[in-house]
Write a structure and sequence with these properties.
Three copies of one chain form a homotrimer.
Chain A (H helix, E strand, L loop, with lengths): L1 H32 L4 H23 L5 H4 L2 H15 L4 H29 L4 H22 L14 H16 L5 H21 L15
Helix pairs in contact in A: 1-2, 1-4, 1-5, 2-4, 2-6, 5-6, 5-7, 5-8, 6-7, 7-8
């Protein structure tokens, strides 16, 4: 099993770095669109990619947070910032691959976040919540720093629900002692496929009905 | 005393859940007004209701924060989000009761926040500060996520000062070893009545004089 | 050496209080410009002055954060808020001295932040990052609460790069065991002079080239 476990760990780490790269790229692209300077690009790239995990680690009391100890996440985010700064591809080119990579980050982060929180002694519902925070927290910070309403809150294509489903599945597996690399990968894959389908078929979450006088 | 203490604890817990419900409702109503989807409503409800306490717990090093351990706060916030999503009452209906419930939350949170911080070894001034953060932090997060200037900072009816008064009274009682369920309840009641009077008589805090050229 | 060390410590503490005062003043002035009430002025002054250090301390697990234990920082920030509330000088009067004091705060905070993080066991790159966060974090919180895009991200005069240079120099000194009061003071002075020169000669950081269709 040792070989298998190690291969799974490597696969998971590589997957997470893909997710970090995708998240960092989305932050860097927003910074470019807003006319931020090179420093602003780096800050938005790093806080998008690492913010969710840092919040999770602060909440569970794991200090310093993982991304301050294992620097591969930070270097990956900086690499993404550099690529965007120098190359700065058109959104039409990046749109497709970026969305897919972002979906991988979302799916992997919601699972690993839930596992880390659960292994730090949180109950299944709290671990689910933190898995969700890990997956979407960085994007919320990106949008706050970039001066726009967090895109995860507004009725664009479903984004948070796949992460919530993945986190819930993971916490359920952990609770019933059925979590292992294969079931965990299935949970991540489920979230990823759900997100890709939402992008492909333009799925939206319901809004509350609003009377005209309720609009802000 | 055991009976009495237990009754006091129950009363305090019920009061806090009322406050959580009121705070969560204010977050959910803002989300509806801004056109957020069901997920945005849930996020705003939860972060408004639980945000202040989470910040307090992170600052005093109580990890995981209380609302990740005792889930009654989370369920109460989710209930408020569900009520607003399905029923979505007009602000004219909710305005009055909501303001009163919010005042109860404010008064209870500033007292319990101060007590928790003091019992974790902080000095009276720092405990006062954290009591204030507990009471108003959630609303600040709500407004940041909702894309508006934190209402507690702008010259609407006095909101933070009652919380500050309640927290200061509590810290003073603790410092002079005079805090007990009765004096603590008086501090909370004082803050609640102060806030209700500010709403009733439209009290405002002073602003600095501004010359015309100072306006942003 | 004891005398010398103690004199250095006193000089550093006085310098930090100068920086706190300058940062708090910048927060209070923004609050006045935005028409916030007296409470909003106090909140913006305190969170600008203390926010960066609080984030650093939460990340390294030093709870409660230093500014909740040593209250001299808090009182200094409150003093700055009071001065601005009552006196409220014109920006033309405060601009020059304020910019210089702010540069001192920036230079001192990036060095002390890096040292504190390094002494808590973080590696040199992570310590550099936290030194930077200590120096600029308060200003980011100020701008978020004040409803504007963080000024450190946009292409105004170079602000974060001096802090990054100071933090990098400090971490390098610590890594090679060459940090002492004198070399540390040189790192701080370098950052301060760099920032003052950037103000004097209107230096800017580069932006990524943007095609017209990339603008937000």
């Amino acid at each position: 099993m040792a070989h298998f476990d190690s291969a799974v760990n490597t696969a998971q780490h590589v997957g997470e770095l893909f997710g970090v790269f995708a998240f960092a790229t989305s932050g860097a692209l927003l910074a470019v669109r807003r006319g931020f300077d090179v420093f602003g690009i780096v800050v938005l790239a790093c806080s998008t990619a690492l913010g969710g995990g840092v919040i999770r680690d602060l909440v569970i009391g794991r200090t310093p947070p993982a991304s301050f100890v294992d620097l591969s996440y930070l270097w990956t985010a900086l690499l993404a910032a550099a690529v965007i700064f120098f190359w700065h591809p058109s959104p039409r080119v990046t749109g497709g691959p970026l969305g897919v990579a972002d979906a991988f980050g979302l799916g992997l982060f919601c699972v690993t976040g839930t596992v880390i929180a659960y292994n730090h002694g949180l109950g299944a519902p709290s671990a689910t919540l933190l898995g969700l925070v890990t997956a979407i927290g960085g994007g919320v910070i990106r949008d706050l720093l970039g001066g726009q309403t967090p895109s995860v809150l507004i009725p664009e294509q479903i984004y948070a629900v796949p992460a919530l489903v993945g986190a819930t599945a993971t916490a359920t597996l952990l609770h019933f002692n059925a979590y292992n690399p294969i079931t965990g990968a299935c949970a991540a894959l489920g979230a990823i496929v759900f997100r890709l389908l939402a992008m492909r078929y333009d799925w939206h979450a319901p809004q509350a009905r609003r009377r005209p006088q309720d609009r802000a």
